[in-house]
């Protein structure tokens, strides 16, 4: 049953609704009395309903530029005073967006502003404008950031130069050659903050899509006995592990063929309506006396519109299985349409993968 319109979550673009623009105007006028709030709102609110999230943010950026008095440095000073008055979160990205849009010709002022603004939200998108404009100079500053006391600043050092950062343009120079970011990644390879470690892992995972051997060689030299480093490496290699890459599996200690027997594999229901839950379970039993490290994944072979299937691999569990021991594993998964995946009726397979090898398959019929 469709959710009633009045109970649906508001669209993301409503983070930049008319009330938000008025709040920013009020707070900015409090710190900069010469700010033309009326002009700002006239510029901002025209046809606002027609704009998506990112277009609304850019509208605010451009309206700020057109309404703030003074040159760029004076405008940045005003925005630095505004930052703590509008909280944290996505809406604060308008501040670094202003820097990325108007600050390329004042490098030092701009990068100091991005460092400050990232503590309220994130400057990860804006810093990419400077990387594209002057890669080596910007990376030199970001290497300094990777040694900063603030986890927000250290995270920016990694996240901002990811070669394939979602919602942003690709950094083609770093896709071609990731070596310039090595000092940053090395500084952060055992970072105490999970917020930072997640960024480093995602950064390395980006690189595996173009240079898997480069990443494997680098992390092989890292101290994997360090818990923080080991966490980064496991998550960095997730795409390669899902593909069953033996080199990546070996790095996480699961490179050997699993000496196990798989029993009692059950997929239910065998006929599933879109919007329903798929369940499966199975038992793994060790065939040897020594303990084994197992990386257990599963793949759903989705039916495409063409009638062919396309597999998507999901993480299930990484475990140490005792000699001659057994473990029962399972998962429930909601089968519904998403913006990133539309389901088509037909036969779908569920495949169990252990240390990169297929050990069992079953199927279900999806109907609408």
CATH topology of the largest domain: Serine Threonine Protein Phosphatase 5, Tetratricopeptide repeat
The best one-word shape is globular
CATH architecture term of the largest domain: Alpha Horseshoe
Given the helix and strand composition, which structural class is it? alpha+beta
How would you classify the quaternary structure? single chain
Largest sheet: 5 strands, mixed
Radius of gyration: 25 Å
Number of helices: 16
End-to-end distance: 14 Å
Ranges with pLDDT <50 over ≥5 residues? 1-7
Query: Order of strands across the widest beta sheet?
Result: 2-8-7-4-5
CATH top level class name of the largest domain: Mainly Alpha
Mean pLDDT: 94
Question: Roughly what fraction of the amino acids lie in strands?
Answer: 15-25%
In CATH terms, the superfamily of the largest domain is: ARM repeat domains
Summarize the amount of helix as a percent range.
Answer: 40-55%
The tally of beta strands, per DSSP, is: 8
Number of domains: 2
Notes on the structure:
The chain has helices at residues 18-31, 37-45, 53-67, 72-82, 94-102, 107-117, 127-133, 135-145, 151-159, 172-176, 182-187, 194-208, 212-220, 227-236, 238-242, 246-251; strands spanning 260-268, 271-273, 277-286, 292-303, 309-321, 326-334, 346-354, 357-367. The chain contains 16 helices and 8 strands. It is 41% helix and 21% strand. The protein is an alpha+beta fold and 368 residues long. It folds into 2 domains: 10-251, Serine Threonine Protein Phosphatase 5, Tetratricopeptide repeat; 260-367, Immunoglobulins (Immunoglobulin-like, Sandwich).
């Amino acid at each position: 049953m469709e959710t009633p319109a009045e109970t649906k979550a508001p669209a993301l673009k409503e983070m930049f609704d008319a009330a938000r623009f008025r709040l920013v105007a009020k707070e900015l006028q409090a710190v900069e009395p010469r700010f033309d709030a009326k002009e700002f709102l006239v510029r901002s609110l025209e046809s606002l309903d027609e704009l998506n999230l990112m277009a609304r943010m850019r509208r605010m950026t451009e309206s700020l530029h057109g309404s703030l008095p003074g040159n760029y440095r004076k405008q940045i000073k005003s925005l630095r005073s505004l930052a703590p008055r509008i909280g944290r979160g996505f809406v604060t990205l308008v501040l670094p967006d202003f820097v990325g849009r108007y600050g390329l010709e004042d490098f030092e002022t701009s990068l100091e502003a991005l460092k400050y603004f990232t503590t309220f939200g994130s400057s990860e998108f804006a810093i990419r404008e400077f990387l594209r404009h002057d890669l080596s100079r910007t990376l030199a500053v970001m290497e300094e950031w990777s040694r900063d006391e603030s986890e927000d600043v250290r995270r920016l050092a990694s996240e901002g130069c990811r070669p394939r950062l979602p919602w942003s343009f690709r950094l083609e120079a770093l896709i071609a050659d990731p070596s310039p970011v090595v000092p940053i990644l090395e500084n952060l390879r055992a970072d105490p903050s999970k917020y930072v470690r997640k960024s480093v892992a995602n950064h390395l995972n980006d690189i595996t899509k173009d240079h898997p051997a480069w990443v494997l060689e680098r992390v092989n030299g890292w101290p994997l006995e360090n818990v923080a480093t080991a966490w980064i490496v496991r998550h960095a290699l997730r795409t390669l592990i899902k593909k069953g890459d033996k080199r990546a599996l070996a790095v996480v200690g699961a490179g050997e063929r699993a000496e196990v027997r798989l029993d009692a594999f059950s997929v239910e229901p065998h006929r599933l309506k879109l919007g329903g839950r798929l369940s499966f379970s199975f038992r793994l039993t060790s065939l040897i006396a020594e303990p084994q490290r197992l990386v257990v994944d599963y793949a759903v072979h989705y039916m495409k519109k063409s009638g062919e299937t396309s597999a998507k691999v999901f993480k299930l569990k990484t475990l140490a299985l005792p000699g001659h021991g057994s473990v029962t594993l399972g998962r429930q998964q909601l089968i519904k349409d998403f913006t990133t995946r539309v389901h088509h009726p037909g036969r779908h397979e569920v495949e169990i993968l252990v240390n990169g090898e297929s050990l069992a398959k079953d199927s279900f019929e999806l109907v609408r």
